[in-house]
Each structure stands twice: as C-alpha cells, then as structure tokens.
Amino acid sequence: MDQIVVDSKSVMRQVEKFTKGYLPNLKAKLKFHDGDLPVFEQFGIDLEIERALSNQVFLKSGGSINIDQTEALVSIDVNTGKFVGKKTLEDTILKTNLEAVKEIAYQLRVRNCGGIIIIDFIDMEKEENRHSVYQSLLEALKKDRSKTNVLPISGLGLVEMTRKRTRDTLIRTMCEHCPYCEGVGRVKSVETVSYEIIREVSKTLKRTKATKVTIFAHPEVCARLSSEEFGMIDMMEETYQKTLLIRADNSYHIEQHEIYSHES
Q1: Which of 39, 35, 52 is nearest to 4 (CA)?
Q2: Same domain, yes or no, for 220 and 153?
C-alpha cells in the first residue's frame, strides 16, 4: 500500500483517528485529495471498475479476453482480435497469450473470482511457447494473496486452475440480476415469441365460442404478428372464421403476452 487517498475532510478525520489508534504505521501514507477531478477519475478507478464489470477486456496489442462468470466456474477465452503481428502467426499468438496472462491474473484479483477457472489460450504449436505461457501465468499469480492451484496447459490449449474463495465477487457486490432477463443474460427473439403466441391463439380459437380474440403484446411482437410477411393472423382468421385483434402495449416485456376471448 503506497497511499490512502481521501477526498472528504470529515472522513479524513475518522481515518486519522483510526490509524492513530490501530495502524500507526499507515498514518504517514494518508493523503487528502483536493484536486479539480473527482478522486476516482483522478486515479483511473472508474475506468478499472468499468473494465472489471465487463465481459470483454481489451489488450494493448488489440487482442482481448472474454470472461464469463457462472455458478459452476469462470471461463476465460483469449482472442487475437485485430492484432496480426509483424512476424509469423505463432509469434503473434505467443505475444497475445503472454499479454493476456498478466491481464488475466490482474482481473482475477480485481473481480475476486474463485472456485474452478478455465482459461482457453490461443492454440500454440510449439511446446516451448506453451511452457513459456504457463510459467508466465505462475509468475503473474504470485502477486495473488488467495491460494491458487494451476495445472499445465492441456493439448487443447486449456489451463485448469482453482482460486480460493474469500468473499463475494465484484460483480455480485456491485450488480444485481437484470430485471428484464432475470439474470439469464438473454431473452427470446421476437420471432420465437410470435410463434408461441400463434400456438396459444390456435388452442384458444379451437375451444372458445367467442367471435373475437384480442392479443396484447410488446410493440415489436405486435409488429411482427401484423406483418404481411408473417401472414399467420390472416390465415387463422380464415381457418376459424373469427376475428383476431392485436394490441400493442409498451409496458409489456418482450416475452409477455395475454390473450382474451370475448363475444362481439
């Protein structure tokens, strides 16, 4: 720890009181920030938080690493991206993998990833290059206070490792499940929802005596149902000799819909 930077005078007094009583060695490292820029912006913290919460982290060379955290494990995929190198493809791959090693070790600490971690490095043909990347990973992980166990790179270019869990990950601490997709990370397409509605409407038309059926759905789904290209609504009206009304509602979730049958 080089410095403890505080941008609030009241908090500064509290920190001074705490360090004086419990951590006197840190008192000399206290520094009050009174610059024009907010303290997080001054020291690049905002940018690092943004990178640590993103699934994709770009490397200086132009390559990138994709980090996906699930309940079962953390998967990390290394990509060359736009980086093509100046020599052979093998040299390009080696340089990207070596650069990725440092970023991966850093991101594991910042995000506080734990449990099983699988790293998919770009495939390398030469055994000495694989060994170099593996040793670089071991060296980079020495800075990590959490205990790690790393297996050598497999024939598929994968590294299996574990990292001791100490507390919640950064994502769990700073984020919540998306209320729209409920944490799944994806929603059904407009096309899929449209066909689900058609199947449900078909069942309704078969069992109801009503002459009209109204469909309430998200505007994009309604637009798809009403399009000439889709054509299912006209066909069903002709088949069942009943009227189908489509009503768009902006408050509806893309997957949400309701079907009402009523007498004319």
Answers
A1: 39
A2: no
Instruction: For residues 160 and 196, state if they share a domain.
Output: no
For residue range 148-203, list pLDDT tens digits in order.
999 999 988 899 999 998 888 999 899 988 888 888 888 999 999 999 999 999 99
Counting the structural domains of the chain, the total is 2
Report yes or no: 169 and 69 within 8 Å, Cβ to Cβ: yes
DSSP E strands in 92-251: the ranges are: 115-120, 148-150, 158-163, 212-217, 243-248
Tell me the residue ranges of DSSP E strands in 22-131: 30-32, 56-58, 64-69, 74-79, 115-120
Strand partners, 245: 214
Residues spanned by the domain of 232: 190-262
- Structure-token pair, residue 86: 């100046």
Q: Partners of 150 in the beta sheet?
A: 161
Amino acid residing at 65: I
The whole-model pTM stands at 0.77
Q: Produce one character per residue of 49-76: b if its CB has 16 or more CB atoms within 10 Å, e if not.
A: eebbeeeebebebebbbebebeeeebbb
Residues 6+ apart with CB under 8 A from 149: 161, 162
Q: Look at residue 87 in the predicted model and tell me its pLDDT.
A: 63
Nearest in space to 184 (alpha carbons), one of 254, 131, 99: 254
CA dihedral (124, 125, 131, 135) in degrees, to 10, reads: -10
Contact yes or no for 263/196 (Cβ under 8 A): no
